[in-house]
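Quick one:
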Amino acid sequence: MANRKYTISMRSAGYLTPLKTGEVTIPGVDLDFVEVEPQIAAFRRMIRDTEFDICELASTTYFIARSLGKPFKALPVFFNRRFHHSSILVRPGSGIETPKDIEGKRFGVRAYSVTTGVWTRGVLQNEYGVDPDKVTWYYDDEDHVQELQLPDNVIKVPDGKSLVSMMAGGELDIAMDGNAGIGRQGKPKAGWNDTSKPSTDSYHELIPDAFEREKEWFNRTGIYPCHPTLVIKDEVAARDPELAGKLFRGLQEAKDLYLARLRSGEATGKKDKELLKLTEIVGPDPLPYGLEENRPAIEALMKYAVQQKLISGPIPMEDLFFDLDSIRATA
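Output:
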């Protein structure tokens, strides 16, 4: 019987490379990789047009989309892990010295539902007592899910301006760094991570000892923030019930090969070093796959999404993720 062929769009990363190169194969399946630069652009294509059979999606975007009945379901795998006490940049002269001081201030984030922003607001609210409703949130991109209704205290920057220009001009008091904030300008496009990205050297971190705070938080809560997951179109999963299990096994095998290379010192890129640093907090596997392995993070992110009015209430795990026991049985 001929292999079944599926279109798939997901990031290029060391833990996925063995699947992309064919070092790891999936029995009976041919994956047609559709490369999208940046990968965030593929999120929008999947959310708005269900373009791919299998696609990486930001976790919060997926929660919102699933709550609205979008026709795809996730594997319990997550990519690009990180904590969120850091990369919150304060403008000198803003009057912000502690997290609680951001109430009444103007905070820049690329889009209100970007997962980095949701995690960060969740930490600020639940660890530092910040009321997000007392902050004015400015964004200069758009949310992936077009049906999303934003809270009244979320405002699009004026035409002709950006988070970068508003922060530099004193019109914002605080902002996210990197792709989630003032580390880029404009909507997701190829090259937005290149060397011409805006300088943030004149700003300082809201939480200066963030790494130690992240370590303490993880040890106390067990929450290891999850970012993009991988979804399979409902009609594809219905037509091929073994696909989820086979794909989970392939992802696990690819990750195991990568972790061996990471530990041996063979993987030495910037992202590899970031993951290796995370092992100082979370232990030897910085990319845990599986529902139970990630339950504290999933439940925390869902709680934050409800608090921030992105979804109306918690979504049952069985509606969000393929059954882990069934996946492992077919794997």
